[in-house]
Amino acid sequence: MSLIAGSYEKFIWGFKLKPLKHEPSSQNLTLTPLFSYQSHLAHITAAAASGPAAASGSADDTIHLYDLPSASSLGSLHQHTSSVTAVTFFTPPSLSFPRNLLSASADGSVCIFDTDPFVHLKTVLVHKKAVNDLSVHPSGKLALTVGRDECLAMLNLVRGRRSFYCRLGKEASLVKFDLGGERFFMVTEEKVGVHEAEDAKLVTEFECPKRVLSAAPGE
Fold first, then answer.
1. Is the alpha carbon torsion for 118, 120, 126, 128 positive or negative?
2. Cα–Cα distance for residue pair 179/216, rounded to 1 Å
3. Are 1 and 11 in contact (CB under 8 A)?
4. Using CA atoms, how far apart are residues 145 and 10, in angstroms rounded to an integer?
5. What secondary structure does DSSP assign to 71-86, as a single string?
6. Could you tell me what percentage of the chain is helix, strand and coil, using 3-state DSSP and rounding each to the nearest 5?
7. Which Pfam families did the record assign (predicted)?
């Protein structure tokens, strides 16, 4: 497993997670550094990894790409004209390399890229204000976004356009599909709401003691 970490100091780090050399069958794991790049001109705002590929987005409006096995830089993408707020890969179960890269920015737009090679396919204006987060359905056919305009939107990735848009009443900071794609959850300050993916019906809601800053789906 590979991990990447970005910082306010403009650096991106790559690590390899593997068993200790003298205990190959042990449950004890260690992080081995792969690379360290000062790849951006401003602080890093988003990062994602899938298979051998990784990407980082920044307030300098750019996305940088990395090859994890060779610990090398693959160049950068310059389609955004404002700060990159989210990046995510879509990798079909049958492939070891991601098929698409999606990125969102502070101007409310989402860019869709083909990853072999990294080619810009389309830019879709989704929100009236900055996009806070985006999540791709496991099928790769649609994606959800939430923004500072207090709205939830759905993107049809087959047609490359926005297919649904509704006001939430409160600003959601995170949106994620579960691993099967049957449900998704949204984070609004200290609350986490779980919804049916088919009709966005609220299934249940969790309230945390303080504001939720990060979340990820699990089995």
1. positive
2. 10
3. no
4. 26
5. TEEEEEE---SS-EEE
6. 0, 55, 45
7. WD40
Between the alpha carbon of residue 99 and those of residues 51, 62, 106, 125, 132, the distances in Å are 11, 20, 24, 22, 23
pTM metric for this prediction: 0.90
Neighbours of 206 (CB within 10 A): 12
pLDDT tens digits for range 92-132: 988 989 999 999 999 999 999 999 889 999 999 999 999 99
Percent of the chain whose predicted confidence (pLDDT) is above 70: 98
Collapsed DSSP state (helix, strand, coil) of residue 105: strand
Mean pLDDT per 10-residue interval, the chain, length 219 residues? 89 86 72 89 95 94 93 93 96 92 97 94 96 96 97 95 93 96 95 93 95 89
| Beta strands, E only, 109-211 | 109-115, 118-125, 131-136, 142-147, 151-156, 161-167, 174-177, 183-188, 191-196, 202-207
Q: What is the pLDDT of residue 26?
A: 65
The C-alpha atoms of residue 180 and residue 161 are separated, in whole angstroms, by 23
